[in-house]
Amino acid sequence: SFAGIVRCGLITESCDWSVSECDPHACPPVTTPDCREDQFLVEVREDNSCCYSFLCVCESCIEPVPACSDGEILAVNLSTTNSCCPQYHCVCDVNLCPESSLTCSPGLSLVQTTHPGHCCPDHRCGTHTHTNTHFCTHNSCTHTSKCTHIPSC
């Protein structure tokens, strides 16, 4: 059995001497590309060829793509779209927030409360006064400023 011969980086399965050997000096001139700072240069060879060329390859991305919450959509920083690792962030779209499934008792209405850092508002049943919002929870009252018991709670 024949173990195969290496000819200019190519392995043949037979001892066919009629096959011309590859001459790396006969390869066309190759220019080395200028890689960006987030890339590195790799020398590659195509199948069935002994001629090499160069490619710029991206480094692995370290920063994970964020997981967006309810009401948020994933967006890319447009100034980073041509880089190997674009920067992503979550953008709030309140139209994507889930509808409230609460049904309020008579005399109470659905009240939305927004919280810094959260896209979707909280929904509770409560009553509105001029500047205070009161919420009913198990016959007790909580709200955004001074709390006084509301008989309707």
TrEMBL record:
Recorded superkingdom: Eukaryota
Name of protein: VWFC domain-containing protein
Native source organism of the sequence: Hucho hucho (huchen)
